[in-house]
Amino acid sequence: MKICVFLSAADLDERYTGPAREFAELLGRGGHTLVWGGSESGLMKVVADGVQEAGGKLVGVSVDFLAAKARTNADEMVIARDLAERKALLLEKADAVVIMVGGTGTLDEATEILELKKHGKTTKPVVLLNTAGFYDGLRQQFQRMEDEGFLPLPLTDLVFFAKDGVGALAYLEESSGLQ
Description:
Elements: E1 2-6, H1 14-29, E2 33-36, H2 42-53, E3 57-63, E4 76-80, H3 83-92, E5 96-99, H4 104-118, E6 126-129, H5 136-147, H6 155-158, E7 160-162, H7 165-176
Helix pairs in contact: 1-2
């Protein structure tokens, strides 16, 4: 399965890098392909290293202004013109999406895939990997949106919240029918 992972390129501490590394190893050992932002820094590098070391493939989609930070030994690397094209390419190349910890860029990517899913423009499974409770507040906000009628379908139809990589991957494999 080709799994797009939205995540930070920042250098983070062990409470985020440890679970990210474990998830990456699960992807690689499972023979999955990581589709990611292509960066050779921070958490993006941790995940790419883990997938590659465990036998998985790497498909990167960088953007022109970050091309100097792109991983040089990915199985495939595409350089997009801008962030909008990058997001479209990431989603086009993937069978499923996992949202890991990140900043505003990750949040932008997450809300775009959820908006596309809300409007029926994609049926790809989406998992929000809630490492160390990072997305507890976002989950609460999404629940409020559902409770107050802002979502036209149940939150559970949009995104699955996983507490760890094992749960995330199990959900993806079950819901996508791909392995």
